[in-house]
Amino acid sequence: MNKSLLLLFLLIASTAFAQTQRISGKVTSATDGSELPGVNVIVKGTPQGAITDAAGNYTMEITSGTTLVFSFVGYRTQEVPLDARQVVDVSLIEESTELTEVVVTGYSSTERREITGSVATVKASNFKEIALTGIDQALQGQAPGVQVTQSSGTPGGGISVRIRGSTSINASNRPLFVIDGIPVSSGSLSLREFGGQDDNALSLINPNDVESIQILKDASAKAMYGSRGANGVVLITTKKGKKDITRINVDVQRGIVDPVKKVDLLNSTQLLTLQREAYTNAGKNPDAAGLIPGVTDAVNTNWLDAIFRTGIMQQYQLSATGGDDNTTFYMSGNYRSEEGVQLNNKFDRLSGTFNVDRKFTPKLRVGVNLTLSKALNKRVKGDNFLDGVYSGALKSLPYNTPYDENGKLVGPGSALYAGFPNFNPVAQALLPRFNTSTVKILGSITATYKFNEYLQLKVMTGIDYNDVKEDQFESSQTAIGGYLSSVGGKGYGIYSTSTASNFTSNAILSYAREIKEGHHFSALVGSEVLSRFTSSSSVQGRLFPSDDFTYITSAGIVDQGSSVIVKGGLLSFLGEAKYDIRDTYLFSLSFRSDGSSRFGSGNKFAYFPALSAGWRISQEKFFHSDIISDLKLRASYGFTGNQGIPDFEYLGTWTTATYNGSAGVTPENLANPKLQWESTREIDIGTDISFLEGRIQAIIDVYNNKTSKLLYAQPYPYTTGFGSVTGNIGNVQNKGIELGIVSVNLDGKLKWRTEINLSKNVNRITYLADSIPRPAGYQAEGAGTTNIIKAGEPLGTFWGLKFLGVDPATGNAMYKDVNGDNKITQDDAMVIGNAQPNLIGGITNRFTYGNFDLNIFFQFSLGNKVLNLTRQTLVNSGQDLTTNQSVDALRRWQKPGDITDVPRYAVSTGDNANFNNYESSRLIENGSYLRLKNLGLGYNVSQRIAEKLKLDRLRVYLSATNLWTYTKYSGADPEVSTLDGSTTAQGIDFFTLPQVRTITIGLNATLR
């Protein structure tokens, strides 16, 4: 009997042993492929299970024929049948609802469900594989209410960012950028203007080091930044270490860069035909002007092909992260090099980041963030420079050649050199030296002391330091150095240096606790000091002994120099209180007081309060819905400010002057002791709604913002000796609606997620000190100016004559006679359009199937107008025959009865002047466009292959930006804007380099 029991026991044990198998695998995030530690893996219906380790791996012994259940906070629970597999790798999808996501909102952070203001989030996963130069590019089309325009295709060039429209005329309209708590410089750092195109301080920050971006849009969200919050606040959080084993990541990108479009120009024969016709129409002999068929057009140079190239973009990044219970760290090194599509144009950046956080005691934690970067921007002249490379290639006659018969560049000393305006654009690209070298130090140290579980003190000190050196030399073979008489024809050089540093220090005392069940209260108080220091100096030399001597020390004459030092700052006090009841009723009150050195003693301080409230209706007991899973209403009201004007504007300043060989001083600006802050009153009403258990989420905001006491240069009669004085003279209104939608369309083997954002903003100048319109933009023949600042009209309004078409009988342009005096003069100028779009937005679709993923991102702008000022030169009706023309000139009027919108060509000189090329609505075009901004395809190599290569993870990907554009705009690019960052003269295309198309292939690997 005992033997039988023993045999039965052995039989049962052997059977159980036969049905037990070892299962292992790896759990990663479907969003970005990162490993997920701490994931619960259990056998469905049993207590048997395991937890993934720091690398996301798990191993367990289970019974075959069962189902594994994977669960992790913030991710969807996933059930996986075992079948006969022994390796089960799983990618978990983040929960569609992001209510528990922690959002940084300034000097504190909160869960998204508790937010009562308007805050948009852009995650690093949205742009991590896009070939971005600067972090501000990452905002384009990614968040409702945010308009981002890349002013040209120059690498490292300017980016215009507007949040909920333009709030100011003269003061800055750039949002405040804050990186890890430090307000940083944005916009241009260079002292040199390159035809309206600036450099970009934010291109010194490596986008690959960014973890997330929060965009604060309404008063409740941004009032804590007070004087600098009127234009919105962009909070950038860089990557930090996590408690984990040390992981090393390598990312390599390499690709090509070319223009999105080239303007079609006339060849030599077409141009000669046009020029001869223009002379004939004017009653002149084209042969006498040297326009001889077979001779004049013997050379046919395509100057655009001559100055353009396919550029090479390459980027290499090495990063490491890890930590234990007490210390975490993140460090990275990055090198980026991008050749511009213009010859000799290049941007190089070398950067490094080191972030470490150390817990010294249970109460004291210290963090250090440090970013160092150095950039070399090899610039070329562009846009509206008379000797710009791209503008010269568009204008130069194809009759000329860049090289002589010996292969030498044609310059001012050559018989083949045509002279202005037909200099040699190729030589102008290759010969000058315009090097801008910038060093940036961005660092902070933060100490947090926790008195108890309710009360803590956080102290931060940081600096944003930028050092710029600019080295320029134009040899005797260039248009300026060898041709301009005032220079002397023997070379010209400038060397300048500048520094801009912002030192920030703040202390924040915060308190948070549950005062009774369901009632939560938090508050903070603090102070902040911001100190600015800028200095600059420059020296100019000319008459160099030869082109082999290129630095100022070799100049025969050093005849100009300058040096400037400016100091300023802010002193601020702030406070915030939040109260919520049962996670249903949410209230927030904030206040900030700022004192600025830019205003007089009676107006230094301004006060910026804000109040907001939210009601999570879905938390109420009476709320029952099978469709709506979460619903919150919120509203805010508050004030923000703007002090973005130069220093000392309130003072009556003096400047140096010389008279009869003696030095002295003379008045420069009138004093205005009453000068004070701009103030923006903001109202926002919004709703956050989630459908079908979070599969569809929507955010809707309606806002009405009014800026008063506009800082503007008020015109003064020149009889006073001054042209203007800065004052507070007007009001501007921005109102609009924003919609953001996220939907999970498919969630099976094929996963499909869609993100849509739409924004409509209406901008108006509602009041000026007087009814006289102010001119803006460029001077314009026939209209006086290209733009106007006028009450009742938006900023960016175009001004000119109303074009009525071409008279079929005469071929002359017809314009509207506004005042009825039977003459066409500047008095007939009127509003002919504006650059403000009616609707902007972006649409992103993300697909995942197995190890493959595909991202398709479209960005668009509707209803905006573009002033094609390039067309005034390239389709100029014969006003200037020393420049080439575009193929649009082939549609010109040639004989009575022709129906066209291009007037006849006739030489316009002296008594034969014509008015066909006046500033008019003929140059205003529809700038609407739909652009395939990014297309990304990636493949995550299987874990089995990665392990054979001794890697934790291996991914290859292909990314393309600006791949395709649909637009009716006839120019090269509807997005460009010559006057980079201008508020009053935006949307002008005046020989502006178009956007570039970048196609890159990349490899990302995590080392074991």
In brief, what are we looking at here?
Helix content is 6%, strand content 48%.
- CA gyration radius, whole angstroms: 32 Å
Shape by Cα distribution: globular
Distance between the termini: 57 Å
Helical content class: under 10%
Structural class of the helices, strands and pairings?
Answer: mainly beta
Task: Give a quick account of the main beta sheet: strands, pairing sense, barrel closure.
Answer: 22 strands, antiparallel, barrel
What is the mean pLDDT? 88
**Helical run tally:** 8
- Which percent range describes the beta-strand content? over 45%
Please explain how this structure is put together.
This protein is mostly beta strands and 1008 residues long. The strands form eleven sheets. The chain has a 22-stranded antiparallel barrel.
Q: What order do the helices and strands come in, and which of them pair?
A:
Layout: H1 2-18, E1 20-29, E2 40-43, E3 49-51, E4 57-63, E5 67-71, E6 78-81, E7 90-92, E8 102-104, E9 109-111, E10 119-123, E11 146-150, E12 159-163, E13 176-179, E14 182-183, E15 210-216, H2 219-222, E16 233-238, E17 244-259, H3 268-281, H4 303-307, E18 311-323, E19 327-339, E20 346-359, E21 364-378, H5 389-395, H6 425-430, E22 433-450, E23 455-474, E24 492-516, E25 519-542, E26 557-581, E27 585-596, E28 605-616, E29 628-642, E30 654-659, E31 662-667, E32 678-691, E33 696-708, E34 711-715, E35 724-728, E36 730-747, E37 750-768, E38 774-780, E39 784-789, E40 797-800, E41 803-806, E42 813-815, E43 830-834, E44 839-849, E45 852-862, E46 865-868, H7 869-874, E47 924-926, E48 929-940, H8 943-948, E49 951-967, E50 988-989, E51 996-1007
Parallel strand pairs: 1-7, 13-16, 46-50
Antiparallel strand pairs: 1-4, 2-3, 2-5, 5-6, 8-9, 10-15, 11-12, 13-14, 15-16, 17-18, 17-51, 18-19, 19-20, 20-21, 21-22, 22-23, 23-24, 24-25, 25-26, 26-27, 27-28, 28-29, 29-32, 30-31, 32-33, 33-36, 34-35, 36-37, 37-44, 38-39, 39-40, 40-43, 41-42, 44-45, 45-48, 46-47, 48-49, 49-51
